[in-house]
Amino acid sequence: MMNSPATRSEERISSATSPRLWTARSSANGSKTLNVNRDAEIRIVEVSDPRALRDLARWFASQLRPLPEYISHSEILWGRAAAPDRWHEDFAGIIEREFAATGAATRRFAVRDEEGWAGLACLNVQREDGRTVATLEDLIVDPGRRRTGIATALLRYVEAAGRDAGADWLALESGLRNEGAHAFFERHGYQTVSRVMVKKA
After folding, report:
1. Is residue 153 domain-resident?
2. 3-state class (DSSP) for residue 135
3. With 60 as the cut, is the pLDDT of residue 165 above it?
4. Do β-strands 81-83 and 11-14 pair in parallel, antiparallel, or remain unpaired?
5. Residue 49 sits in which domain range?
6. Is 197 a member of any domain?
7. Does residue 137 lie in a domain region?
8. pLDDT (tens digit, 9 = 90+) per residue, 97-111?
9. What is the CATH number of the domain that holds 46?
């Protein structure tokens, strides 16, 4: 389907709101598959409550399970995936334990609507030798809510959070076959600077 200027989704991010809550307004293009109301409000919240984190972890695992193309080297090195094209058999449990870990440097920002969780972004900030490094560890949107502005709103939010933490750069990794994600990040100014290879020891 072609978008004309009159039907293309428009986002307006308000940076005047609280640092922990941004608002994005997205006008739907009329497609019934978008599953978003006209001028729907996208609310981003940081999730830290243990019960909410457990629920969010289960949702996140259910979103990733059918997407082996999401697997990158971190998923392999940290146990989420058993191979470059296969998740670990205890994948959901591993995700739950990750989210439940205390003292973690990772912050989790999510979008939730009347139908449940709609999107998630995980930002890790590390400080060492006077430098601050911000890494976007995960970004995912429910398939029924894609192309409604949620991914862009989440990305802009974590970019601002990284800058607020003092980071000069925001880094991310993406599975080699995750071409949709590559195109999305490139549209937002990201560039490929390396290629990571793995081999079973």
Report:
1. yes
2. strand
3. yes
4. unpaired
5. 11-187
6. no
7. yes
8. 999 986 668 999 999
9. 3.40.630.30
